[in-house]
Each structure stands twice: as structure tokens, then as C-alpha cells.
Design goal:
three-stranded antiparallel sheet; 3 strands
């Protein structure tokens, strides 16, 4: 579920972070033993006050070297949000953002 207070750029930043995590989705010190893999199958929904029921936007699946957005009901909301976030990282001024303290394009993990 996503909060009605979030906008598509906020959602895009969450998706961007999850996409980056999918490149090496391990937590803990035992990754060499095949332990600690982070996997996710997230059914993304939104539910505003004026709706009786939540609206499914799609699914996001994450695993080792796997990041997949599966649209729901022909909606491209999730993919559009991710693309908007990627555009915001490329041209932050267009969105009134300043990544002067941190630039994800040059960050080293």
C-alpha cells in the first residue's frame, strides 16, 4: 500500500532504491554462504479517502539480479514513477531538488 500523501516522484524514489538493492540484494555477513538474500514481491496499491476500496497499481518483484515491474489493469503508474525519479536524478533542478550533498550517480556502494 502506498500512502495517499505520497506523489509519483516519492514513489519513484522508493522504486529506484529497490532497483539499486536488486543488484546485490543481501543483508548480513553470510552472503558468501548464500544466506541473507533480500527478496520482495510487493503488490502496490493506493487508497485515497474518496475511494471505497484500494486500487492496485501493479507488482514489484526483486531478487538476485532481478527487478521487475508488473503493471496492473494496463496502468503504467509504477514504471512512469521510476522513470520520473531517474529523470530527477539526471536533472534535479527541473524538480526543485538539490543533490549537492549526495549524488546517486557517482555514489560507490
Amino acid at each position: 500500500m502506498i500512502s495517499p500523501g505520497l506523489n509519483d516522484l516519492d514513489l519513484g524514489f522508493v522504486l529506484y532504491a529497490l532497483k539499486q538493492i536488486s543488484k546485490w540484494p543481501y543483508v548480513g555477513a553470510h552472503a558468501a554462504d548464500g544466506k541473507g538474500e533480500f527478496a520482495l514481491d510487493w503488490e502496490v496499491k493506493t487508497w485515497s479517502d474518496d475511494l471505497k476500496d484500494p486500487i492496485p497499481l501493479g507488482r514489484v518483484k526483486i531478487g538476485l539480479l532481478d527487478f521487475e515491474i508488473i503493471p496492473e489493469n494496463g496502468l503504467s503508474t509504477l514504471q512512469d514513477a521510476l522513470e520520473k525519479a531517474q529523470e530527477a536524478f539526471a536533472d534535479p533542478g527541473k524538480y526543485g531538488l538539490d543533490f549537492g550533498a549526495f549524488n546517486p550517480q557517482t555514489a560507490v556502494a
